[in-house]
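The protein record passed on below.

***
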Amino acid sequence: MSTVDKMLIKGIRSFDPENRNVITFYKPLTLIVGANGAGKTTIIECLKLSCTGELPPNARSGQSFIHDPKVAGETETKAQIKLRFKTAAGKDVVCIRSFQLTQKASKMEYKAIESVLQTINPNTGEKVCLSYRCADMDREIPALMGVSKAILENVIFVHQDEANWPLQDSSTLKKKFDDIFSATRYTKALEIIKKLHKDQAQEIKLSQKDLEKLQILKDAALKLRQCITQDHEESERLGSKMQDLDRHIQDVDAKIRQTEAILKEKRKLDDQVATKTAERSALFKEQQQRFEDLAEENDDPDEDLRKWNEQFNARIAVLQDKIKKSNRDIKDIETKSNISQQQINKYNGEVGKLKKEAEIYESLKKERDSTIQELYRQHNLGSLPKTPFSNDVASNHISRLNSRLKDLERNLDEKKKSMDEELKVAWNLYGDSSDRCKEVEAEKRAKLEIQRGTMARKKEKENERDKLERDISDDKMRLIDQKEKSLY
């Protein structure tokens, strides 16, 4: 709590400018008494002037407040007020205000010439003097005391000519109470808080919209990344499958060549079968002819006939062996032909399947190329070579798209973090503003209660004053009656 210790007065009203008049204020109470004109009111005026810089009422701009130079027999009078007090923090401070009143040819000129604050350095113990303008001093002293200027003027150091301000009109009274309770300042603060609350709510809405847009972009980026990953995996799978198909095609080509060789051998065997069949038919005809010839009588000797018969039987045996061998060869060739035909049919089916897979692969390659072109166009990644792309070129483009996607995700994460921080700050400010609004509303309600209580006390005082006036009137009437009775 701030307290007043001492005050020095020189050259103020009836105080001599040459003498140093010092008054000490004792705790907890100091009574100032004296005859009329002794300077009791002047002390209160000096306290008010030192703390607020406000001249007392009816001071004619300070000319009647400073000691009259004519009384001192001088053309110029210098006045000074020194006030020593303890601040709210318990620090000793001396306030010095100096004035000057000069007698001109036709008028007197008042001037405030110096305003100084004097403190003691706690480290060195030396006095430190700071010179201020009057306006700065008027703001600095109430701040050091921890009391507003309105309270110092209207509550603590009230001039006797202004002591009846609670009985003034309602507009003046409202202004006084607003100044005392700093209602105007709190109203402005409340308006600023409401405006800040509105701006922050708008910023929060905009931030939420931006966050929603960023979330949409993030979802699209994630979906795009999934598509690129799937396409990359599909491309790798198709590439691996294409390599397998190439190897399979090579195997099928080898089998086809092998089958063609088998077919060639089959045709050769077929020719051989036809030749052997023709030979067998010729031999059969020859044998038939010989049997027919045997039916005829032969004049050859028996020895020749037996010899020829043996040769013929040997020849028949040889031919039968050849026929049997030819039949076996024909069966073997037919078996091999059937097997070869089955293999050919199987290879033809595999070739058709491979052609279908090759068509699907080409379709997927086209889809991959079109997807790469679309992504490049959407994200302005530059020009592309003509399609179709080779696997190496497609892999390079997919790597570039993955890099671009990572950059987008990184930017999105950074923006999201920034938006989260801004949103957190905005919500904190919103919470602080709401708490401050509640405090201001509570203070406002408390001040309104105090104002209503003051108005009620004012009403009571007015009622007491009316009652006293009626009592005084009654007493005067009784005195008049008594005087009249004493006269008669």
